[in-house]
Design brief:
With 78 residues, the protein is mainly alpha-helical. Helices cover 72% and strands 8% of the residues. It has four helices and two strands; from the N terminus they run H-H-E-E-H-H. The chain has a two-stranded antiparallel sheet with strand order 1-2. Strand 1 (41-43) and strand 2 (47-49) form a beta hairpin. Helix 2 packs antiparallel against helix 3. The protein is flat and about 40 Å long.
Length: 78
């Protein structure tokens, strides 16, 4: 099946919404961050590259890290 990872991600997103899985969004964000850091490019509203606009690129990476940590906040507190 072509694009099976996309289909699985969409199904998991639906489950995350229905079952209120906050941890899923953190995992989803962190997996996206791995790809972003490896490729040096972020596709958000438009393409942002580390080479072309490094300050904006790293600002967006930082924001995504904070959003992932925020999504995990209830699982990280003791």
């Amino acid at each position: 099946m072509k694009k099976w990872k996309t289909v699985v991600a969409l199904l998991l997103m639906a489950f995350a919404i229905v079952f209120d899985w906050h941890w899923f969004w953190a995992v989803f964000i962190f997996l996206g961050l791995l790809h972003v850091i490896q490729s040096g490019e972020i596709h958000f509203v438009e393409s942002v590259t580390k080479k072309e606009t490094p300050k904006l690129y790293w600002a967006m990476v930082t924001i995504w890290i904070l959003l992932g940590a925020y999504s995990m906040r209830e699982y990280l507190t003791f």
